[in-house]
Each structure stands twice: as structure tokens, then as C-alpha cells.
Here is the input.
Amino acid sequence: MLLNQFLLLSAFLFGTGIYGVLTRKHAVLVLMSIELMLAAVNINLVAFGAFQGDEVAVVGQVFALFVLTIAAAEVGVGLAIVLLIYRNLHSADLDDVDSMKG
Amino acid sequence: MFFLDNAWLVPLIPALSFVVILLFGKRMPFKGSEMGIAAVGSSFVLACGAAVQWIQRVGDAEEGGGGTEHALGAFGAVIGRIGEEATEGEHGPIVESVHNSFTWFQNGGIDLHVGIQIDGLSVMMMFVVTLISLLVHVYSVDYMKGDRRFTYFYAALSLFTASMLLLVVADNTLMLLVGWELVGVCSFMLIGHWWEEKPNSDAAIKAFLTTRTGDIGLLCGVIMTYFVVQQGTGTGSFNIEDLNASAAGYLNPVSGTLLFWCAAALLLAIIGKSGQFPLHTWLPDAMAGPTPVSALIHAATMVVAGVYLGARVYPVFYEGLNIGETNINLMAAVGGITVLIGAALAFVQDDIKKVLAYSTISQLGYMVMALGVGAWTAAIFHLFTHAFFKALLFLAAGSVSHSGAHHSFDMKKDMGGLRKYMPQTYITFIIGTAALAGIFPLAGFWSKDEILLGASEGDYTLFLVVGAVGALMTAAYMTRCIYLTFFGEYRGGDHAHATPHVDEAEHQPDEDDRLPDHGHHGGPHESNRWILAPLWVLAAFSVFAGLFNATWFDIDKFTEWTAPNANVFVELQHHEFDVMLALISTAIALFGAALAYAYYWRGLGPQRLSERNGLARTGRQFLVNKYYLDVLYTDVIVAFVKGPLARATYWVNQNVIDNVLNYAGKGAMVFGRFTYDVLDQKVVDGAVNGIGTITDSAGSEVRKIQTGRLQFYAFMLVLAVGVFALALWIAA
Here is the structure.
């Protein structure tokens, strides 16, 4: 197994995530794309962790676990915000949420 | 060492008493006098304690072989250094003075200290000042009774004493300057105590301004001595011991020119304060003040401040004026001239207090002359003894005037024959006169003899002659004074018909106004015990004070006790008692007294010479007009300043300075207009406005990308990351 295979997978997933974040209109789909990006990052972390020389150190893997935890929390908060936006604007379309226009 | 370490209490107590008397004096049962007496009394006790402890310290130092205790404070390091270099006894006895000081503030690397330096000289001065002041306070209870400003008088006396004591204990020249000026202000207040009479307030102003002329010298001297210390120790300081050690040449070499100018400036201060020729003219006029004040000024405070300054920073004079190396120097010359002119003027005075005032001038001349010929101990010993008998003479004169002459001081008009009415005053006055004239074994004999001895041993033959002639004149004019006051017929006449004699010399205000409860004035009578007690105390001191340094009997306690720390002082000469010299000086004094006796009592000699002989009349006229010095000062110097000089200054002011100012103003206006139009309006405002405009337009452009749409922001973010990544990749 080569490190490059994991990295390519991760890059493909990350690119998909970015594409989703930038193009999807619905807030839930954007959140899901963010999850894809996080997953890509996790693959990177685990891959680097596995391929580094020291067998005992599992720093990358532990880091990935932390990212998963934080991602769960982040999705929880994000969905709650989306829910509130929908209640107030009767829409989950991100183009409607532009009250920070300068 | 309680009394020595805490000697700062000695000036502090009268200073507090001044405030208390000023605030609450009028409500006190004795109108503040009890407060003043109590304060000065406690200062006196503290001063006595300090004296006893100092004498013990001197004894300890002699047994322990030199100064065992090191001085505290900033000076400790220097002391230690020279202490190692100088072997014991090389310059003389070493008894270190007591220091107690703290830093007042620091400025530009200069530490300004407030503190005390107590040595034999300060202890002696504290003792004299507090003792005389205490007696004057007691004396004034009766003398000033019923005065309309009785409370104020006591407040001023307290402050006067406090100022002099501050001057005495000061360990740096700045504090000394403060005390010096305070003394001047207090003497102004007290000389002008009865300021309702124009001559009195004139006399006060004259005293103040004349001494201020000398104070310029002190101020310059203080500044210059700072640099003496800088040259001597490396760091500038106002500390007096540092100054003395530097000037005496025990540290780094100090420029001789600088020392000379320091000595000259400080000598000017002494001339002003101690009534030396030619600034002595204020002292006789200062007689306008109440008699107790005159006693205080002439004996303990004010005028001796100058001599004290000379003794305190003596190394500056010694090195600056080359004392001991030449046969004449500025200091001795000033003193010598003053001895003679003061004594000569005393002959033509009708006012008893003025006789004593000129006598003081003459005696202060002795002290300055003694400093000038290198007889340091003799100078301060004479200061010590003179304080007692001069205070005695003044207080006795006050007693005569108060009880025997209807508050007049004119010997020729209102006195005469008083020995029958006032026996105690008469006896004490005789004692004071004998002491002043230097009759064995009274106080004046020992001190005057030491001065003459110093002059003769130091090869100052000229000043030996001056001193001897002065002694002759002193004895003669005092005998004249006694004759006019106590012998002959009483000339005061009946009080009901005698109006208080007022002329330029005599400024007593209306006595009924001043002394309402003295209605019992019949004829002359003896004063009461408030006045007599101080007289007898002073008489006792006048008799015995000289025995502290009765060198004939091998007693030199005074020399031993006041000897300055030889590590920081020039080497002092001490001479063996010379019996011949003592005999001659006493014989001269007795001869002077005999001459006056023959002239006044026996009617021998050319009586009324000045009315018959033109030359004698001119001479007398010259003396009566006080050598025309007052004329010189008011009609020549002041008139020149008021007349031509003022006009010239005005012309210069109008034509030169005003034009310069006008053109400078116009130039400034043109420049200001240019600055406003070009620099301010165009450059500065343009820059400020330009920056504002740029910021504004940049903001309105940039706000267009602030869409509020989240995904656009995310796009920008990704784009930016991409650009940076690309840049890094290219760079790598």
C-alpha cells in the first residue's frame, strides 16, 4: 500500500466537499459537504499516522478521533442554527440569508 | 546619644511654639508668653543635654584613641576613606560629628538632604542661642507688658530662635541658607515691631535690604561651593563636611581660583549679616526694635550668624584667602577696619543702645579678624563670651530706659546719676562693661587675649596693633557710657513735664499707648525681678564664661570641646598663653578707661575741643555722620540708581528694547501668517483631508464585495488558499 492512494482519495473527497459547499443552495446539503471535507481530513490524519515510522505513537489516529467528536458537536449546533433560520425565514436557502450585506 | 542624635528637636520646638502662639496665643492666660518661655526652655534643656553628651563624646574619643564611632549617612564612605589614610593625630584631635539626615528629594542625580550635623561648634551655639533666648523671653514678660502686639512679639521671638537654631544644626549649605534667610525675615519683623512710627519701619527695611545685599554673596557662595565638593569628592553635594574636607585639600585637588571666589562670596555674606564694614550701617538703625530684640540680635542670633558661617566653612576661607601664609588678607582686613570704625563711632553716640550697637560692630570685627588671622578657636570663643556680656549690657540698658529714663535711651538728656536709683542694674552693667573691656579675669579678657595672641603668633603684627587700639577704644567709650548713664546728676527731670525725646535715633512710640498699665512712673526706680533675674544670670556668665579657656591656668576645655574633626578641617594653631601680651592688653584697656575717667569725672584734658578747634569739629562731624556711608548709600548709590541710571534704563527700554521687541513681534506675525496660509492650510490640512478622502473611496469600493452571502465568502476563502498554495508551490 502506498501513501499516495490514501492522499488521492482524501483529495477527491475534499474537492467534492468544497464543490458541495460552494454550489448547493440548501443549508443541510452544505453541512453534509462540510462533513465530507472533515472526513477527507481524517483520512489524511490516519494515513499519515499509520505511515509514520513509529508503531507505538498513534497521534494521527487520536487526532482523528478528536475531529470526529468535534464534528458531531459542530453538526449538532449547525443543524440547530439551520432549524432556527428556517423558522424565521421559512426557507433553508442560503441565498436568502444575506443580512450581513455591507 | 539621645540628645545629639535628636538635636533636630532643638529648632523644631520653638518653630512649633511659633505656630501655636500665632494661633492660640491670645487666648492663653499670659497671652502666649508662657508658651514661648516653655518652648525655648525645653530647647535649652535639650541643648544642655547635647552639650553634656558631646563633652562625654570628646572624652571617649580621647580615651579610645580617635573617633571610634563612624558617622552615619552619605558621608560615612568618605570619612572611612580619609580615616584610613590619615593617621591619628596628624592634623589634630579627631572627634567625629553626629549626623542624622534623610534624603529630601533627588533631582538630576543630585541628592538633597535634610539633616543635622552636630559637633562642638553647633553644640556651643545651641547652648548660647537657647540660653540667651530664654533669658530674653523671661525679660520681655515685664519689658513688653501691655504692648499692643505682645502675643505677636512672642511668636516672632520663637520663630527667630528657631531659625537661628536651624542655621546652627544644618548639615548642608542649603539648610543653612534657609535658616539664614529666616533669621533675616524675623529680624525684619522684630526691628519693625513698632511699625506705626515711620523711622521704625524704615529701619526694618534698611536692615532687611542691607543684609540681603550680603545674602547675594551667600547664594552665589552656596552654588559655587557645590562645585568645590564636586572637584573634591567627584560628586557634587551641599554637605558641609564634604565641603570642608574638599576645601582643606584632603581629597582630590580643588581649583584655587574657585576657592578664592567662594571665599569672597561668603565673605560678602558675612559682611552683610555680621555688620562688617562697609555694610554695617543697618546695625545701629536696628536699635529701633524693642531692647530685648536688640539683645537677641546682637548676642545670640542674627549678627553672629555671619561669624558662625565663617567658622563653619572655615577651610574655604583658610585655603581660598591663603590665611596663615601672608601677613594680610581680605578677611582680616575687613575685620580690622570694622574694629576701629565701630569703636570710633561709639564715642559720638548719645543713645545708649547705639553705643552698644557700635560696640557690637567693633566686637564682631574682632571675631572676623580672628578668623582672618587663623585664630579659629579664639573667634568662636569670643563669640561665646561676647554673647553673654553684650546681652547683659543690652538688657541692662533696657532696664535703665524702662525704669529709670521714661523709655528714652538718650544718655545726655534723660539719664545720669542712676546708680543711686538702680543699684542692681548699675552693678550688672559695670560687670558687663568690665567683661567687654577685657579686664582680668572676666570673660572678655580671655577671649580677646586669645585673638591678640593669634594675631601676634601668626605674624599679623598690623592686626595685633589694631586689636590693641580697639581694646583701648572699647574701654574708653564704655567708661564714657557709664559716666553719662550712672554718674553725674539725674537729667531726666519730672516725668510730667518731660516729653519722650524723639529724634532720628530714638523711635519709642507713645508710651501711654504702648504701656497702659505702667501708670506708677514717678521717678527713676529699680526694675522688678523679671528684668533683674536675667541680668544676674548673664552677669554670672560674663564673669565665669571665660574660665572655660583660661589658658593662663592651663585650662583649655573650650578648645578641646569645640575642636572640629581634624579629618575634615584645616589644621588649627593653638598658642601658649603669653603673660606679657595679656598684661599689655589689660594695661591698654585700663589706660583707655583711665583716660575716659580723667576726661569725664575729673574734667581733665581738652574739654569741648570740638567747639573750639576746627579740625576736631570736622572729625567729630565726620563721625556723627557715620563716615557719610549712609549718605553714600542713599544720596549717591540710590540716587544714581533712581535718577540718571533709571532715566538711561528707561530710554534704553523705550528706544532699544521696545524696538527690538516690536520688530521681533512683527517678524513673528509675518512668520505666523505664512505658517497659517501655507503650512497649516495647504500642507497639513491637505494631508489630513487627502487621507480621509482616500480611505472613504477605498471603503466604498471594498464594500461591494461584502455581499452577505456565505457561499461567496467561502469561495473567496478557497480562492485565497488556492492562490497562496500556488504561490508556495512556485516558490518551492
